[in-house]
UniProtKB/TrEMBL annotation:
<dbReference type="Pfam" id="PF03167">
    <property type="entry name" value="UDG"/>
</dbReference>
<keyword id="KW-0408">Iron</keyword>
<protein>
    <recommendedName>
        <fullName>Type-4 uracil-DNA glycosylase</fullName>
        <ecNumber>3.2.2.27</ecNumber>
    </recommendedName>
</protein>
<keyword id="KW-0479">Metal-binding</keyword>
<feature type="domain" description="Uracil-DNA glycosylase-like">
    <location>
        <begin position="56"/>
        <end position="202"/>
    </location>
</feature>
<dbReference type="InterPro" id="IPR051536">
    <property type="entry name" value="UDG_Type-4/5"/>
</dbReference>
<keyword id="KW-0411">Iron-sulfur</keyword>
<dbReference type="GO" id="GO:0006281">
    <property type="term" value="P:DNA repair"/>
</dbReference>
<dbReference type="InterPro" id="IPR036895">
    <property type="entry name" value="Uracil-DNA_glycosylase-like_sf"/>
</dbReference>
<comment type="similarity">
    <text>Belongs to the uracil-DNA glycosylase (UDG) superfamily. Type 4 (UDGa) family.</text>
</comment>
<keyword id="KW-0227">DNA damage</keyword>
<keyword id="KW-0234">DNA repair</keyword>
<dbReference type="InterPro" id="IPR005122">
    <property type="entry name" value="Uracil-DNA_glycosylase-like"/>
</dbReference>
<dbReference type="GO" id="GO:0046872">
    <property type="term" value="F:metal ion binding"/>
</dbReference>
<dbReference type="InterPro" id="IPR005273">
    <property type="entry name" value="Ura-DNA_glyco_family4"/>
</dbReference>
<keyword id="KW-0378">Hydrolase</keyword>
<dbReference type="GO" id="GO:0004844">
    <property type="term" value="F:uracil DNA N-glycosylase activity"/>
</dbReference>
Amino acid sequence: MDKNYFRILKELGIDEIFVEKDNMQQDKIKLLKEINEEIQKCTKCDLYKSRTQAVLGEGNINAKLMFVGEAPGADEDRLGRPFVGRAGKLLTSIIEELGHKREEFYISNINKCRPPNNRTPTPWEQEACFPYLEKQIQIINPKVLCLLGAAAARAFLERNVAITKERGQIINWKDKYLILTFHPAYVLRNPSAKDTLKEDIKKAIELAYSD
Ligand code: URA
């Protein structure tokens, strides 16, 4: 890009800030791609042995709200995308019922590899994988993290969480807010909990978009 290019942009009234902003987006994409390359090769815990592929996450890289689940399931492991199975479809439909789109937000998991038979990741497996999520959070910089299920909450709070008692609360974590709620897979097994999950997600969205 030569000086003429910038002169023409200025004459057209286009602010240079947009150029800087675009560079920032490119940096975010590059950094997330680097994490993806790392996780595809990761052997820090044994979950790599049975994975088809690691699943980084997807969505708006400038999202104010990030959903964090437990770990990929069979569909996610096969497709390389988070929350695309039955639980994911429920999450997406709740977001839509609240008048939003899944693409507005970023969706990821504590663990990037599917545990065999979808078992809950162990605390050690969570600890080994957590730095990848921390890097994603640093890059995307959401205001709110909505933690789906007790396992995701345990990884952040570093203690066992009784999700039925602790859901719905807003918790300070670093410079962010955490909102703990049920995992959509739990709601599939207990349909009467759907309204509660929806209420918590509504709260997370409202907090994310508040000033
Ligand atoms: N359950 C999760 O916790 N994460 C997914 O991506 C899918 C199902």
